[in-house]
Specification:
By secondary structure, this protein is mostly helical. About 75% of the residues lie in helices and about 0% in strands.
């Protein structure tokens, strides 16, 4: 075995648990969001978003241990998404659906990379008194407020939302999970419910970005929290918000199941 082969093997060996930590971090973030959303549905107000979840986790009593682990895990998830998109480790191909899925993976890598940097800025005390993430978050908000960027993001979120619905309807997620039949029965419930809920939220985010791109008076921002605010303002908003919270809880369980049983086929990269 050559030294190059040994180096590649060692890289792949440590990257797998790194990627699994990433799925666990995603599950933890969405578990906190689900808690916020269900609490909002049972009382008043709106649900939280990913940044709210990150602030909650980094300001908890165990943040000194949890936050560095969260940062590393989010970095692992972001890098794994890039590996999946660039090297097509899951064989999505170069067709319209495959390319759309891979674009969504790149978008996922960017968004979780943003959350990783946001977590780091809060950990370093650069978030400011309002917890807004300092200059980094302000620059990102200004960038996202540009009309062309808003319209591009609207298209990306629309594609990613459709990919979630397609994956739930066809159960394509099963191709990438290796678990017992008994475990798979529970994973099916979590995956289908979670993917549908997250897909619907992405559709709403796409609509909000599209609307902001056409309106010069809008601040140009859209997030999970904004989408949940929009849903809560609809007829029977509290019931819809509660259903979304339950769906996001299922998505967190699906993420945890991926941390355990997902095929991390980095060998194909």
């Amino acid at each position: 075995m050559t030294s190059s082969t040994m180096g590649n093997k060692s890289w792949k060996e440590w990257f797998k648990p790194f990627a699994r930590l990433g799925y666990g971090a995603r599950g933890l973030v969405y578990l906190v969001i689900a808690f916020f959303v269900i609490s909002a549905a049972l009382t008043t107000g709106s649900g939280g978003d990913t940044k709210s979840a990150i602030r909650f986790l980094t300001q908890s009593r165990i943040s000194e241990v949890l936050t560095p682990l969260l940062i590393v895990s989010l970095a692992g998830y972001s890098l794994w998404r890039l590996v999946q998109a660039i090297f097509d480790t899951d064989d999505h191909g170069t067709g319209a659906v495959g390319l759309g899925t891979r674009v969504g993976l790149v978008g996922s890598a960017v968004s979780y990379g943003f959350l990783m940097l946001y977590s780091y800025s809060l950990w370093q005390g650069q978030g400011g008194s309002d917890g807004g993430g300092g200059g980094f978050a302000q620059y990102a908000a200004t960038f996202l407020g540009a009309t062309p960027v808003s319209l591009i993001l609207a298209s990306i979120f629309l594609i990613v939302g459709g990919a979630h619905m397609y994956k739930a309807a066809t159960q394509k997620y099963r191709d990438h999970i290796k678990a017992s039949d008994k475990a798979m029965a529970w994973i099916d419930v979590a995956a289908i419910g979670g993917l549908v809920a997250r897909g619907l939220i992405f559709f709403v985010i796409a609509f909000l970005f599209y609307r902001s791109g056409l309106s010069s008076g809008d601040d140009g921002q859209a997030s999970t929290g904004d989408a949940l605010d929009f849903i809560s303002g609809l007829p029977f908003g509290s019931w819809l918000l509660g259903a979304m919270g339950a769906g996001l809880f299922l998505f967190s369980l699906y993420s945890f199941s991926e941390a355990i049983w997902r095929r991390i086929n980095v060998e194909d990269a």
